[in-house]
Write a structure and sequence with these properties.
The complex is a heterodimer. By secondary structure, chain A is mostly helical. In chain A, about 75% of the residues lie in helices and about 0% in strands. Chain B is mainly α. Classes of the chains: A mainly alpha, B mainly alpha.
Chain lengths: ~120, ~200
């Protein structure tokens, strides 16, 4: 942890440069590359998780012996992350399962909406 | 955890009260993760349900989003430098870097307000469709957090100018730095899952 007491904040500068690089890489993957859409989504989400890890471990002082490692409730954070994963993945699973593949589903919905509107008009 | 007072190390860790407050704030952040996960889940489920309103791909501007992302990213970095200065014992350095952080945060907020006004002119509001409701609630909740953080930091700056660095003020600065970095973590996921995916799909 020399970076904390030294004059130059090495850890922060490395984390900052990595964050910028990852942001630009994600932007390029999304708008500049010819990858299939699914792979774009998977890769930029992976880049986001790496960047979040950089913020947590290089900026947010999660690992510090000076506090005798008593300042971070690891179990609570783990609990929060697990709940977040269940809420997001569970919602998507519940709302999308049983409707066929996601791509077709969008089309179905638009079609259904148009139909509903159409029916609405004929009733009046 | 040791309850005794520490004689060395960063000021914010020296009293057991300080360490407990930081621990408590991490518990709050864990709860914030869950809060934002519900908003992300709502957004993901309602993705594509734009009804007759314009689609995100038509409205999102890569340049505006990139400027916002970099403003918040740089402010997270300067906030880290502020804590670094605090641990070197420099009140002047701390206040300077904290003010730079605030200016960048205000810049971010300005761009976000511009973005929302721009969308409203394009005919997209909270009431437009399920998708746009979830979009404005997710980004708006993040923006509200940034606004609160700016107000909080201004109050803290006044206290720092009056009292200087004590175990109490340094603990408070450390906690707001955690809050500020956390907002950047949330923004990384908004940038990726809302803006980038919105422009790709």
């Amino acid at each position: 942890m020399a970076g904390h007491t030294g004059r130059f904040p090495v850890k922060h500068v490395i984390g900052f440069i990595l964050s910028i690089a990852l942001t630009l890489l994600a932007l390029w993957a999304a708008l500049g590359s010819d990858l299939p859409t699914v792979w774009i989504i998977v890769s930029i989400m992976a880049l986001a998780i790496i960047q979040a890890g950089i913020q947590l471990f290089m900026f947010m002082h999660m690992i510090e012996s000076e506090s005798h490692n008593g300042h971070v409730p690891w179990n609570m954070i783990f609990h929060g992350l697990v709940l977040a994963a269940i809420v997001v993945a569970g919602s998507l699973f519940t709302m999308y399962s049983g409707h066929g593949s996601g791509g077709d589903h969008d089309g179905d919905m638009k079609h259904e909406q148009q139909q509903e509107q159409h029916e609405g008009h004929t009733e009046h | 955890m040791s309850a005794h007072e520490l004689k060395s190390g960063p000021l914010e860790y020296r009293s057991s009260q300080g360490r407990m407050n930081i621990l408590g704030f991490w518990i709050f952040l864990a709860a914030e993760i869950v809060l934002f996960s519900t908003l992300f889940a709502t957004y993901a489920v309602l993705f594509g349900r734009t009804a007759n309103a314009p689609t995100p791909g038509e409205l999102f501007e890569p340049s505006t989003v990139l400027v916002m992302t970099f403003l918040l990213l740089i402010s997270s970095f300067t906030c880290g430098i502020a804590v670094h200065e605090m641990r070197r014992g420099s009140v002047k350095g701390l206040i300077t870097w904290l003010i730079i952080t605030l200016v960048l945060g205000l810049g971010f907020l300005g761009f976000e307000i511009y973005e929302f006004i721009h969308y409203t002119h394009e005919g997209v509001t909270l009431q437009s469709s399920a998708y746009w409701s979830s979009f404005f609630i997710l980004t708006g909740t993040h923006g509200l957090h940034v606004t609160l953080g700016i107000g909080w930091a201004i109050l803290l700056l006044i206290q720092l100018a009056k009292r200087g660095l004590t175990p109490v003020t340094s603990r408070k600065v450390f906690i707001i730095s955690l809050y500020w970095h956390f907002l950047d973590v949330i923004w990384i996921f908004i940038f990726t899952s809302v803006y980038l995916i919105g422009m790709v799909v």
